[in-house]
Amino acid sequence: MKKLRREPIGVTVLCWTALAVMTLVMVFPLLLVLNVSLKSSTDFLKDPSGLFAFKPFKELFANYKEAFEVLDVFGRLAYTVGITVGSALISCVVIALVAFPLARGHFKGSDKVFTFILLSTFFPGSLIANIFLVQNLGLYNSPFVLVIFWGFGGLTVYIFMAIQFVKDIPRDLDEAAFIDGCGYFRYVFGFVIPLMKPILSTVFILKLVGGWNDFLTPYIYLIEDKYMTISTGLFAFKGQFSSDWTGISAATFTVALPVICLYVFLQRYIIEGMAAGALKG
Amino acid sequence: MEKKKHSKLKTSPLVNPYVAILATLPALVSIFVLSMLPSIVNLAISFTDYHGVGQPFEFVGFDNFIRAFKVGDASVSIWDSLLNTVVFSISVVIVQQALSLGMALVVARKFKGRSFFRALFFMPTILGVSVVGFTWQLVFDPVSGPIAVILTKLGKSSALLGEEVLSMFLVVLVAIWSNFGYAMVVYIAGLQNISEDIREAAEIDGARGGKMFWYITLPLLKNTLVINFWISISGTLAMFDIIFVLTNGTANTTTLALYIFQLATNSASNQGQAAALNIYFSLFVMLVMLVFNATVRRKEAEE
Amino acid sequence: MKKLRALILSVLVGATVCGSFASCGGPSKDVLYVLSFKPEYNEFFEEVNKIFLKENPSIKSVDYKAVDTNNYNTVFSSRVQSKYLDVFTSEVTYMMQGTNAYMQPLTKQDYMDGIKAEYLTRGSFYDPSAGGEPELLTLPLEQVANVVYYDKGLFAEYGVEAPETWSEFLAVLDLFKEAAEYPVVQNGVALTPIEAPIIFGGKSEWPTMTVLNSVVADVVEISQPEFFHSIKDYDTNENIRFNNAIWQEAFDKVKKIGDYVDNKIWGLDYSFASTYFSIGNPTTGKKYPMMIDGTWSYSQMEATFEIGAFALPAVENPVNGEGKKNLAVKTGTTLSVFNGSNKKTVAEKYLEIFFRDEVYQKFVNFTKTPSVKTTVTQSDELVNSIFDSAKYTFVEAYDSRMPRYFPLPSASEISSLMKGDLTAKSVADSLQQRVELNKKDWEKYTGLAHTK
Fold this sequence. Notes:
heterotrimer, A: 0% strand, B: 303 residues, mainly alpha
């Protein structure tokens, strides 16, 4: 029978204090941004620290109107989500496709290939070389560059994890399928990938968040504004409106809000996915 | 009757090896093009004084490698940035791990609302570096930010992100703020893996609070600790985007990774020099990770 | 269900891949790509864009982008490599430092007749080692100077005048520094509280170069007027050294000025400096009497007080060989056509619009810079008093007159110097060391000029 243990009052108080303090630390900066974004420039300069004044709706959200226009939030958000989701999916597919043959040793020399991949961990990438290659191959102004870096890059670690995972899937399953005449790729897409869901969902989420966070890649490689992701758009926004905290705050909050909303709905999956990935590694 | 394919590569009668190889190709090509090729190209560039596409450049041998250690060519010397990197990484890793482990212990307890707190503390990780950067720039504005207001009321003033020592401290703070949620979540998962029975058994034996933590929980968390430290160390060494957004690379906060980034994206600068620095940096990171792995292995062997 | 999932997956992946290839076609023939590092001039550029589109129906739109100084290099490099560029802003300094490789030589056309000859000269580039003739590569829109702005009202209130010598300058600085710590009460009335004597955008680091330029314009130019002209004789002339007594004096004075700067500004982005100069510190309500900056920011200031400006006097007797004072200037924003553009002739029409009298007059009124055209005049009193050739000899600012690849003190170094973290001697010595170290690189470029 499980005993319901009561922890000492002191510990409870300590814990709740810690939670309160940390909550404040987490939330305060964002509330600050919200507060500043609702002030007009002149208001802010008169009284930077006070609460925003209640004003008619149009005036209050004037900064947001400008931010929305300049950032083109909805379009850019859709584009960013599209590219990051697409890249994440590509990562999953590529990883599954390589993990299966290597884990099963479906061709002679597959262990040599495995060593090859292992060896590649000793080759650190290089931003300079990437820029050099992209420029000399003429891949400018193309979201393809983003897909390449995000979808096909940094997969080595996950490949190893995936191979381990596939080894846990019983061989009889494949053999039965192949005897039945199931095509190789059809089998991978139809059976292996669903069975690899835990590891692949981790990869998916990590790649998704990674692409979202990476505002420098579009900044360096892409030319036209319309191809910038929303994180880059925000970064570039400051360049244009550099001395106006109220404008910048509105833009920041505009970018943060959809993310927070999506997060609120998906947080369980995101958190569990990322934790599981780390633990399995 | 199926035709048997005779192939030197065949390992299983059911599988066409060529199809299998085809499946591995996307990954192999990616790895070659995105990991190996750039490293080789980087090595090549480091022996030249490449300035940008279309500009004439020449082979300069080991010049770039030697120059890296002489008087700093541009805004930050390699020694300064190396020092900053070490200070930054050590501070972030230690404080972040301590904080996330501490909060994990608090949040992992059974109480109402714990998933809310878990989600709240994890949120900064997904906000995006630009959002985090600008938010904290506003907080740290030395004239009109909230900290400035408080300082003024106390009769003091500070340049915050412009101060020599304080700027590094603040940058570390923001780096921890935006990433500790991830480590915390991993610790929580690790804690949850420790079965209740072990705890109860320990309690019956008289273990309480601190003792319970030190002798039971911590050893059982060892794997999680190793993973978190590994991710934290390797991530922090390479981290520069948050510093870039906060300070745009002032002398006191520029880490080696940021310095290399600045050189790489400034077309007028000597890219060969940046490539050489990149090689030094990669060697440094590899060294650190090797030491880490060796330490972990030694500790494991001791047990 | 499985089929549906597979379908969705392949559509998404396919769409990503196809969409990615969408723009691999290079720069459009009917879009004009304009890149500028002057976000402050956005309004003006937008007007020019409208005129341009009306007069050039072959162009459907103008892709105009303004990037702040800090990130300009990155964006410019990728634009140049990818050729998504037609017109861009630059400076004479950049042209001499290598950007000339990307500038399309401009043929002398009618619209240039109104431009003063000296500006056309400065916008020209000549490489003696390559032979040939000087080429006009970039058209200057303005000239800028490094000045110290001051609040005339505050100065009058505290009974001081614009300083004319170094010691007078120090006296004014000391007075305000004291007033910041011990508020002054005169005849029972408290004078306007002072936050600190000087403000400028310290976190961006490059504004410290304006201080260095102003100091060097007096300390080096007056004591050793031939210094900069003799760089090419470096090997034979032992007086051409960057750690001699003169240069140490210059760095010492820069450091001294750093003592009077509000300590907070080292965390302040450049873009906020002129705002806080104009309205004071919003948190404390105290004011800044002086700001060291360039005339490029004058048009953005919305001050409630009358703004004055003087050239920073860095020596006791700031009078040069011509009997005038020195003012550190440089040719400010210039316009060029990208030589890799796929629509050069059309791009040049964009430049032409800028220099039409009615358009340029608007520019000069908007930006408050001295006019480069003979047919257009600047009417702002303050600007004209600064760019008064009877009062000042215009000397080229230090950081823009060095040969290509010549090491300069970095902005970070000068910031550290001003903050008190470095000594003048260490900065001077390290500069000299770098000059020696890089001699192979810069020696080849000492001959570059504007004319033969």
